[in-house]
């Protein structure tokens, strides 16, 4: 005891760090990743590996050689971005397309804005939307290769939302909702199992990493809007259950719209943010030319976050 | 019974009350005592003894230096060796009276027996005088002179006296021990303060992690003849012992920004203060002792202690008596780990408000490197004042004083919840503390300017009148 440490209070810290938060998000994604790998096999594993490796390497290279700052890959945020990007891509995506997605996600959406905490748009979604617009053929190839689960038949064909977009309601007359909840047929890794995603989200809630208000307001809005349209003309518009369980809604609502950096900090700001996403999703699904609109909806609402943060503040003590 | 707590923010650090089973031990007298003249909030006390004087235990050695100030007494008998500035625990030079101790010969008229005196005197002014004469100050941390707090300005009435037994800081156990060992004295002290405040309700708030203390006070209340005093178990949450938070928890009323507790009818006193009031009023004994915990995560249980110390004992003397500073200790803290002050000078003397020597290991206390804000909002969720620390931090860095005032930087109670819960280890409170000081400066300057302008206008008016 030659030297005493002296610093202002507090002298202890909660067992939480950016790294532990990101680790929790990665753990929460594991059930859905496991299902997708079992279902899609080696090709899904390859997409995941390329995506995570590219994101981490790119962030490391950019901080090291472009910014000449200490590397930030240790905070694991690049790993989360890599996982989310991969889960938004078809398992048949060629490796070089995945890499381009990572360049846009990490290089453009994240690092060029100043790195973690400064980005306006969700990096993984920016990468995904860039690929969707640039490589429409590869990005909508929903061939299902042989997975590790031998008893699941390999199916080829568009997603349920894709069928609605092309054929109308006739395309999805025989949807089994229990099936969509457990193991969706077709789609990206993040679209396969609603149950696995919700399990992971439950973990995030229990660990108090995220709050439920944003996903809940998205789900409620989607259910309400599709409920009204479906009741008005059931032969044209799909119903609430269908819209809640198909596409990337659950992945988007639970894991992408809740991204700290690109979502409002206040509860009421978050509710408005969620309502906006839910509404835009349904407008794109019903009236847009794309079958799915979760990515666009979240990116559009990302732009409102600075305004929502400005408009909604904490309730102060003793200033009623 | 439904447990209550405050309504905004708060955190749940592990309570780590390692020394809770250790009964209070009396420390032997050292050879020298150093008694600080600035151990209460307000003006420093003025010495009334001279070098070479012989003083007895409990004799007044300094008198209040202003309205908000307090008497200081000799904590042992001996000779005044020097009256000179001496470094306090932060290293700031503060006038101290040094006493070469020769024994423990008390002044006349002090009841040193253990007999419990339960009869409450009825002369309010006499009781307040006794509390003042015995140098009683708030022992919950702020050391505000108790006689001032118990005498609210005319026009305001106390509806509820809240005894603070929350002890929400981790590690600290001194309040818990006195609640167990001096239960009845504390309750009598509460009854005395209740009388002084005009017979209001009294609630003793204790956090649920101290069920033995809750039970002990409950039993004492059934055995003692007082009305309108109750125990209220509180949910464990930091900073429950913060004055505004405790009032919110007990009375469901929020003190307005810049307001005093009495504005919502509340007076808050710590349980240790209640004990000091009992000793002052019933025993005529001045505040020369207090209870202090020696604890830390690098000490085995048998080296954890709760001590009854004489005010003015050097911290180093107490640490030595307890077996020395453990080798693993990297940081020494006076107070709790959330709001306590790091000790830079272990030779500093204990003061009335000393509550602990806490040893923390480097891996417990070292802050990790700061990284970028990820806007998770944990700091805003944790802030018990409903502030947005991330925003205050940004405004402070931008030097935006106006924005800081609008965002209520001056409402910060410096509880540390924001920095405690920040995953990016951003020094939020360090910055907000600075910001708070700047904003308070602006507010004070504005008030002073307004006052000066009003006086100038008045003078001009009078000059005008005279000219006519």
Chain pair with largest interface: A-B, 36 and 64 residues
What would CATH call the homologous superfamily of the largest domain in chain B?
NADH-ubiquinone oxidoreductase 51kDa subunit
**Strand-residue fraction of chain B?**
15-25%
Overall morphology of chain A:
globular
Strand content of chain A: under 5%
Radius of gyration of chain B: 23 Å
CA distance, first residue to last residue of chain A? 50 Å
Strand ordering within the main sheet of chain B: 1-14-13-17-15-16
What is the highest CATH level, the class of the largest domain in chain B? Alpha Beta
Portion of residues in helices of chain B? 25-40%
Major beta sheet summary of chain B = 6 strands, mixed
Task: Give the number of helices of chain B.
Answer: 14
Number of extended strands of chain A: 0
From the 3D structure, determine the CATH topology of the largest domain in chain B: Rossmann fold
- Number of E-state strands of chain B: 17
Shape of chain B: globular
Which series of helices and strands of chain A comes N to C?
HHHHHHHHHHHHHHH
Number of domains of chain B: 2
Distance between the termini of chain B: 73 Å
Instruction: Determine the fraction of residues in helical runs of chain A and give it as a percent range.
Output: 55-70%
């Amino acid at each position: 005891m030659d030297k005493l440490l002296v610093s202002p209070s507090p002298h202890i810290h909660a067992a939480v760090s950016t790294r532990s938060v990101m680790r929790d998000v990665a753990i929460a994604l594991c059930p859905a990743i496991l299902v997708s790998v079992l279902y899609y096999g080696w090709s899904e594993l390859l997409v995941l590996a390329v995506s995570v490796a590219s994101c981490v390497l790119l962030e490391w290279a950019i901080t090291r050689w472009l910014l000449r700052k200490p590397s930030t890959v240790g905070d694991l945020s690049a790993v989360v971005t890599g996982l989310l990007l991969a889960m938004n891509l078809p398992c048949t995506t060629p490796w070089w397309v995945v890499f381009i997605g990572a360049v846009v996600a990490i290089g453009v959406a994240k690092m060029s804005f100043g790195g973690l905490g400064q980005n306006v748009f969700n990096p993984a979604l920016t990468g995904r939307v860039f690929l969707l617009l640039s490589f429409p053929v590869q990005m909508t190839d929903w061939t299902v290769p042989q997975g590790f689960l031998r008893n699941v038949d390999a199916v080829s064909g568009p997603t349920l939302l894709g069928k609605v977009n092309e054929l109308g309601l006739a395309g999805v007359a025989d949807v089994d909702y229990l099936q969509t909840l457990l193991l969706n047929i077709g789609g990206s890794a993040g679209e396969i199992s609603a149950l696995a995603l919700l399990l992971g989200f439950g973990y995030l809630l229990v660990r108090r990493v995220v709050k439920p208000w944003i996903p809940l307001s998205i789900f409620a809005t989607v259910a309400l809007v599709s409920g009204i349209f479906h009741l008005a003309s059931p032969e044209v518009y799909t119903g609430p259950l269908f819209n809640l369980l198909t596409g990337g809604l659950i992945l988007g609502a639970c894991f992408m719209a809740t991204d700290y950096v690109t979502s409002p900090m206040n509860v009421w700001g978050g509710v408005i943010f969620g309502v906006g996403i839910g509404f835009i999703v349904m407008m794109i699904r019903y009236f847009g030319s794309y079958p799915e609109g979760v990515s666009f909806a979240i990116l559009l609402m990302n732009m409102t976050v600075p305004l929502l943060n400005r408009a909604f503040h904490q309730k102060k003590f003793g200033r009623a | 019974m439904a447990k209550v707590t405050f309504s905004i923010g708060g955190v749940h650090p592990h309570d780590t009350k390692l020394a809770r089973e250790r009964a209070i031990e009396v420390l032997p007298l050292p050879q020298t005592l150093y008694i600080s003249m600035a151990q209460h909030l307000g003006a420093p006390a003025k010495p009334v003894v001279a070098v070479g004087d012989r003083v007895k235990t409990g004799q007044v050695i300094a008198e209040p230096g202003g309205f908000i100030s307090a008497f200081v007494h000799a904590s042992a008998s001996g000779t005044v060796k020097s009256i000179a500035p001496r470094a306090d625990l932060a290293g700031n030079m503060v006038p101290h009276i040094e006493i070469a101790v020769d024994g423990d010969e008390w002044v006349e008229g002090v009841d040193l027996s253990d007999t419990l005196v339960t009869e409450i005197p009825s002369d309010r002014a006499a009781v307040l005088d006794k509390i003042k004469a015995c140098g009683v100050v708030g022992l919950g941390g702020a050391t505000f002179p108790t006689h001032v707090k118990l005498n609210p300005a005319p026009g305001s009435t106390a509806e509820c006296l809240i005894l603070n037994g929350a002890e929400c800081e981790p590690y600290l156990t001194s309040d818990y021990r006195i609640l167990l060992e001096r239960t009845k004295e504390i309750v009598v002290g509460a009854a005395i303060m209740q009388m002084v405040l005009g017979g209001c309700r009294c609630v003793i708030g204790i956090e649920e992690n101290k069920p033995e203390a809750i039970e002990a006070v409950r039993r004492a209340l059934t055995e003692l003849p007082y009305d309108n005093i109750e125990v209220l178990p509180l949910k464990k949450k930091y900073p429950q012992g913060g004055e505004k938070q405790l009032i919110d928890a007990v009375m469901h009323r929020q003190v307005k920004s810049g307001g005093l507790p009495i504005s919502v009818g509340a007076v808050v006193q710590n349980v240790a203060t209640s004990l000091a009031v009992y000793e002052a009023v019933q025993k005529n004994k001045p505040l020369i002792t207090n209870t202090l915990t020696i604890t830390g995560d690098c000490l085995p249980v048998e080296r954890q202690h709760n001590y009854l110390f004489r005010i003015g004992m050097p911290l180093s003397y107490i640490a030595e008596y307890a077996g020395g500073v453990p080798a693993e200790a990297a940081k020494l803290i006076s107070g709790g780990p959330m709001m306590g002050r790091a000790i830079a000078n272990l030779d500093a003397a204990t003061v009335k408000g000393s509550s602990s020597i806490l040893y923390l290991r480097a891996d417990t206390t070292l802050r990790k490197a700061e990284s970028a804000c990820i806007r998770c909002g944990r700091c805003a969720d944790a802030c018990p004042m409903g502030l947005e620390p991330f925003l205050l931090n940004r405004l402070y860095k931008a030097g935006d004083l106006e924005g800081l005032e609008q965002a209520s930087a001056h409402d910060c109670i410096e509880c540390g919840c924001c920095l405690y819960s920040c995953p990016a280890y951003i020094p939020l409170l360090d910055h907000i503390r600075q910001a708070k000081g700047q904003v308070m400066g602006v507010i004070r300057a504005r008030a002073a300017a307004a006052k000066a302008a009003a006086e100038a206008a008045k003078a001009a008016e009078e000059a005008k009148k005279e000219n006519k």
